[in-house]
Request: fold
Amino acid sequence: MIVVGGGIGGLGAAFSLTRQGLAVRLLESAPAFGEVGAGIQLAPNCTRILDDYGLLDEARSLGVVPDAMVMRDAVDGDELTRIDLRDLEKRYGYPYLVIHRSDLHGLLLRACERAGVELVNDAQVTSYENTADGARVTLASGGTHEAGIVIAADGLHSVARRLFVDDRPVSSAYVAYRGTVPAEQPRVRSVDLSEVVVYVGPRCHFVHYGLRGGELLNQVAVFESPKALAGQEDWGTPDELDAAFAQTCDFVRDGLPYMWRDKWWRMFDRAPIMNWVHGRIALLGDAAHPPLQYIAQGAIMAIEDGWVLGEHVARNRTADGAVDWSAALAAYEAVRPEHCRRVLTTSRRWGELWHLDGLAREQRNALLRARDTYDYSFTDWLYGPTALTPDQEPEMFTPIPLSSVAIGEEVLTGDAA
Ligand SMILES: Cc1cc2nc3c(=O)[nH]c(=O)nc-3n(C[C@H](O)[C@H](O)[C@H](O)COP(=O)(O)OP(=O)(O)OC[C@H]3O[C@@H](n4cnc5c(N)ncnc54)[C@H](O)[C@@H]3O)c2cc1C
Reply:
């Protein structure tokens, strides 16, 4: 079989399917395998799968298992709510881990190499088609590859997705700056590396956490670009970064000089689609469900997709050991699109909540301050075992409307919410 795309999603799927005894060829357009960017957060619904793959110990040794996740207001710096990540690990059975992207990518790449995945670079796929007994991809070079099944994990700008829907990436007008700071820098001394912290502010937010056992501080600064809103082509530039955070607290502003200023990531997603299988071609990862990153589940969903596919291959073998692909792909499509739809729509709403201003910001802050540290009603739908069938998909949480919060003396003094 063929997997197109050597990102975290494609590598995860290639490993999962090779583990089921299938011969996998992975086609990647870039001349070498790699990941750009800095840190990535892996919640228990991902570390559970890494454990099943036998890769969790290596991931732990490369990353950091923080003690707490803390949300603060970016304007005054006050703590709004926190999650005790050691208790969360007990609840879900697996840790919350933060890791450098290149370390996660490298870990999956090495696992694929060990498992015998055929890794092919300089292979840019330009088209996909079903054949009488499988599917065929054509490369920019003119060459073709054929297999019984093609999994398209070709990311946000997926070529394969065009078989399913005529859509385009949706700009959020938000842009992310990233940066890592070596531990010897004074900035790192002002930070508790055992915490994942997000400062939420009007039209902006700022995230930090430790990486590589505390050798690096990872920082992410995200803001709404006025130039994007004005329809200008050249948006998200460093001058906009400084202006966007002008109203935030000293700690956040002091972090900005440490961001990489020569590269930034404009934030796009796409509306959910519920059909991912076309004959013997299936979408996976960002190609199927690129999210906004606010609940940090994009790479996780991609890894879950590959695991679910592998599990359904195992459950759909015919007597002679062949895979009943119609059944396996149907089972995959029965469960993953609805889960990812929930993540995509919740990510958009979560971002809106982070970026509120004025009265709504105060209402949000009052709600968050009233939350019990050990209340898991907003994470149970996400961090439990990955569903293999629709009936295993947990109930969604019930959102609390902001309008239910009366901003008056009682709430502001913390007596009610
Ligand atoms: C700022 C930011 C923070 C994030 N934080 C988190 C987080 O904390 N946790 C989390 O889980 N997710 C996070 N995400 C999301 C996550 O990074 C992505 O969802 C994930 O990397 C998608 O992986 P993928 O393999 O599906 O796609 P990609 O990483 O885009 O990989 C696609 C691969 O396919 C290749 N390719 C593309 N087109 C072709 C072609 N035509 N032929 C052959 N190869 C092709 C590409 O070169 C690439 O290697 C974040 C995203 C951003 C932007």
